[in-house]
Design brief:
single chain, alpha/beta, TIM Barrel, 8-stranded parallel β-sheet, two-stranded antiparallel sheet, about 45% helix
């Protein structure tokens, strides 16, 4: 592009801009008035220039993102029908969730496993079944979201025991590819800061590297959730790629691709004025796209209170199709390259997370701190601070803690229990609970309906 239109303008330095701003502030302190410090300890400035560029090379996916449909396997024939329908309507990836073994021949009937990226997330651990399924799929596009440490963190217990779980996973590792997932989405949905999410996910993954050694590196992939802080969520995913590559270099693992599966967060989703959830998931899906996710599975606007339904799932899938096809974001994984602001916060997030990661490792590692309750305590402190900000309207969820529709009634529309369930079971450690910001307020509103 010709630059002759701008030749008459002299370049202006960052110092000159700051000086001009200081004059316009008429005596107000620049640092106190215009600088914003986030919970991650990052100073956000009012303007950025090329001096803020880091020129850090991030290994992003070479092709665009996959549109994923999430399907729970209750009935094999129904699951297969839903998968084929989603693929026919624009999805090119499927995430299957299951709580027990199933007939995979029926579930995967007529699904082209070479052209469809497939994810399997189980709430059980069965090495023989997973290996058998992996052999049947026989595709590099097949990913198993198996995370024994993530299960321990969320449930408070191993599937069987520490030795039993690792033995089963070791059997899987020797026979299957893409067989370990690290559940970074747990920490976001529980209320951790972005720095904590990055550091805990990295330390979590490092436990697998410590146990299995460098050969496990290419078999590990990641799940993240994107919140509403648009630019920071873009920077979060980009920062993690830097961190994971840095860690792998320490193990002398080269040319490893970081595979990221992302979803919008549930933490900021609301029961009342639920249509606003579509706006939230659109923004969060865009963060996932521009952050360089390999695959994105959107969350239906009514997912927290309705059973899976055709309308909600179609809307969620079409949101991604609109972003991909009509907003021209199919090949958008490198759009953030060169963006001064995003590059600056990406670098700061990576540095802060690396510092926290080193502290965790120095203190005995992620599992040690998890068993001691330190990780849970830190997340809980962040979550309580966030909930206090929500209560005081420093964090706004439109229609919930601001501009409420007093006539909105939800009690008769609940098909699912939308709140954290109390569990009366003995656990080895304190579980990390996923909890939405608006739960306490929504419980109060429900109790007052038709009162």
């Amino acid at each position: 592009m010709s630059t002759f239109l701008f030749d008459e303008f002299e370049p202006i330095s960052a110092a000159a801009w700051k000086q001009k701003i200081q004059v316009d502030l008429k005596g107000e302190d620049y640092n106190k008035t215009l600088l914003w410090k986030t919970d991650e300890g990052i100073i956000v400035k009012p303007f950025y220039t090329k001096e803020d560029r880091t020129n850090t090379q991030i290994n992003l996916p070479e092709k665009g993102f996959n549109i994923c449909q999430t399907i729970f396997i209750d009935n094999e024939k129904i699951a297969n029908s839903l998968a084929l329908d989603a693929l026919k309507r624009g999805a090119n990836a499927i995430q299957f969730k299951a709580s027990k073994k199933f007939d995979y021949h029926k579930v995967l009937n007529n699904v082209n496993l070479n052209s469809t990226t497939t994810y399997f997330q189980f709430t059980f651990l069965d090495a023989d079944f997973q290996i058998e399924l992996s052999n049947f799929c026989n595709s590099e596009n097949c990913f198993f979201q198996t995370d024994i440490i993530g299960n321990l963190a969320e449930s408070g217990n191993w599937f069987v025991s520490l030795k039993g779980d690792y033995k089963k996973l070791e059997t899987i590792v020797h026979s299957a590819e893409n067989c370990i997932s690290v559940s970074g989405d747990l920490y976001q949905n529980a209320g951790a800061t972005i720095t904590q999410q990055l550091a805990y996910t990295l330390a979590h993954a490092n436990e697998y590297l410590n146990y299995f050694g460098k050969d496990i590196g290419p078999k590990v992939h990641f799940t993240f959730s994107a919140g509403s802080n648009y630019f920071f969520e873009i920077a979060k995913l980009r920062a993690f790629r830097i961190l994971w590559e840095t860690l792998l270099n320490e193990y002398d693992i080269k040319n490893n691709e970081t595979h990221i599966f992302s979803q919008p967060s549930l933490r900021n989703k609301t029961l009342y004025d639920y249509n606003v959830n579509m706006l939230r998931t659109t923004s969060e899906s865009m963060s996932g796209i521009l952050g360089g996710s390999n695959t994105i599975s959107n969350v239906s606007y009514d997912a927290i209170y309705h059973k899976s339904n055709e309308f909600g799932e179609r809307i969620a899938r079409n949101q991604l199709l609109i972003l991909q096809q009509e907003s021209y974001l199919q090949e958008a994984q490198k759009f953030a390259d060169g963006a001064y602001y995003i590059e600056a916060i990406t670098q700061q997030l990576a540095e802060n997370a690396l510092t926290l990661f080193k502290q965790i490792e120095k203190a005995g590692g992620f599992l040690h701190q998890l068993k001691a309750g330190i990780i849970q305590k830190k997340i809980n402190e962040s979550a309580l601070k966030e909930e206090d900000n929500f209560k005081n309207k420093n964090i706004v969820l439109l229609g919930t803690n601001l501009l409420q529709n007093k006539n909105d009634q939800m009690k008769s529309d609940l098909e699912l229990y939308p709140f954290v369930k109390q569990r009366n079971i003995k656990t080895l450690l304190i579980p990390i609970n996923r909890k939405r910001l608006s739960e306490n307020q929504e419980k109060e509103r429900l109790s007052q309906e038709n009162a």
